[in-house]
Specification:
Blueprint lengths: L5 H13 L1 H7 L11 H17 L7 H9 L4 H15 L5 H29 L3 H12 L17 H5 L13 H7 L7 E6 L5 H14 L3 E6 L4 H13 L9 E8 L4 E8 L6 H11 L5 E6 L7 H15 L5 E5 L13 H19 L2 E7 L20 H5 L2 E6 L2 H5 L2 E9 L7 E7 L4 E7 L2 H10 L4
Parallel strand pairs: 1-7, 1-8, 2-5, 2-6, 6-7
Antiparallel strand pairs: 3-4, 8-9, 9-10, 10-11
Helix pairs in contact: 1-2, 1-3, 1-6, 3-4, 6-7, 10-11, 11-12
Length: 460
Amino acid sequence: MEALTPATQNNIIKLLITDDAFCGISVANLKKEYFSNAIAQDIVTICFTYYSNYREAPKTHFKDEFHLLVKDMDEDTKGSYVAYTRLLQSLEPNRRYIENILNEFIQAKAMKNGLIQAAKALEEGNTSKAKNIIIEATKAGMANLDDSLDYLTDFSDIDKRGEVDTFLCTTGIDALDHEIGGFKRGELVVDVAGYKGYKTFQAAHKIHHFIQNGLKVLYYSFEVDIAEFSLRMDMINTGRGRNKIGDDITYPFYDHIRKEAVKVTKKVESVFDKDICKAARTRMLENGGSLKIKKYPMGCASLDDIEAHIDYLESQEGWLPDVVIVDYIDIADLSNFGTEERHVLNKAYIALKGMADRRNILVYTMSQVNAEFLNGNRPGKSAVANDKRKVGNCDLMIAYYASEADQRAGMGKIAVVANRRGPDGFTISYSHCLDVGKVVASSWRDSQATEDVLEMFNNI
């Protein structure tokens, strides 16, 4: 890594201004020369000077320090400085990811300089000095970023711990949220279902929920094209359909207040109303979230290509995702992982989990279940197609399935197959109606409600 990208530089400076701990670990490692413009360098100097005096980041005091910096500048120069601080105000840095990038950068610079110095020492015939230089170079990096803990004497993890679990976002499925809370950064989540089991629709439902909660989502498709996927998103955004337009559609809905299932009837309106779809997308912007869609031909892009694309968005657009969805990893180009399918898939899922850890984001993918589970039986850990180690490599695995009776009733089941940090093995029911853009209309764990829905729609 020769240089920090402009986006990374901006995020570093935002953290230097606002985060005491980040400022503290950066003082000994960062140099203003690492930043590519004078404005950034001046602000870094403000932050480090303030920290050396008060042992904390400037935070609200930055405004006063900044005023002192620009008060004697001409108006054009001052305007450039003010515009830069406005850019910083809009940023919400992913601290752990920025720390990882900065640490790698510092280590790379130290190793490069060490190798140059070691080579000179070897030319001088001083082998011992060369070895010591290399040893010192390998020690470079930001203090306190080593992911380890001396459990009995270091209480820093307890000090950071909140009163309750913290999540990046809920799942968008109420009954599931009640059981597992939501999704976290650094997690790999896998949805499994049968062939043509609406996995992509489920992904679109979650993306809609993520955007509503202000998250930046990056969706990679190896299967559905952009036009089709954006149409599905528009169906969810507008509550409109592509078929049965003008018809009255009835579907089940679980009323949590009355604790019973009821019938809901709605007229299908057209998703092909362009003005409605444009207005719905514009309204979604109000929450601060965003969605970028990237289509690759099936089997024609690798995880390295995905990583490179994410790096491109960061370096060229200053855009960092909170969530990356790969639909789906089994049909990407995995040739660099070997030739035997199950070992290839195992390595691919490990790489996806590594991406989640390193970038401190939520990574989501999908997979198939084995043929024997396509008849509506509840999938378990043995149901995962091709390689069961997928279950062990992910943090959360969610299975979607339905019997023929369930499908006729507009209902499905969700089973939590595996959960690294909480309960698994349980099942919830949910209702849906894709004709009006309802991928998950309601959800519940009330077995009586499930029976009532089947009875309502004459499926018992």
